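Please, structure for the following, as tokens.
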Amino acid sequence: EDEDEDDTSGVECKLQLRDKHRRMPRLCFPTLGIRASGKTHWLARTYRSISLGNYSPNIRISPIDSPSKDDFDRLVDRIINESEGTPPTNPTRLPRGLPFEFEDADYSYGQTESLLNIFDYAGETLDRPVSDPLLVRALTGDGFLFFLDLMQPMDDQRRLLDKFKRSLEDIPKGCCTGSRLQIPVALCVSKIDRLPKEVGRGDNIKHF
């Protein structure tokens, strides 16, 4: 087992891996966005779907045994079987990574196998100053899942999205000065199932 630690920020993520997974290329995808936008609920639902094998036949993806897997097993059980809500994410600590073993079936260009880590960050993380070690760690990813919420004021979310963009530009990525680093960002809109039957009744949705 290996405990991963960031030497530059001093923030320990307590990611534990078997030897065979330590040698695999790692991809890190933090989930960020406005507070209470459904990030943890989405991740729990996605985790359950993957566990049941509900994904494209062109890939293979499976959760890896880890302390965070045990936590999500219990969380999914509460959400799916007991219809409970998700607890708030602790905004003061680095979340445990939820690791998946991923392999595609691209036989034309060569199969890719990697270790995919998803980190569920609290909505308050982006309110931290750009020098804060927790924010630096959250923004050191290979891609991001950024959640927007139709039920919350758009101005607050626009402000947070702008800060996310500025913070990405301000945090050094170890590349040459003046170069631009292209990082994929998936904008995820949550709670679509709560849309009013008549869109005209929801000013916030029209604004969105």
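The longest helix spans residues 154-170. The radius of gyration is 18 Å.
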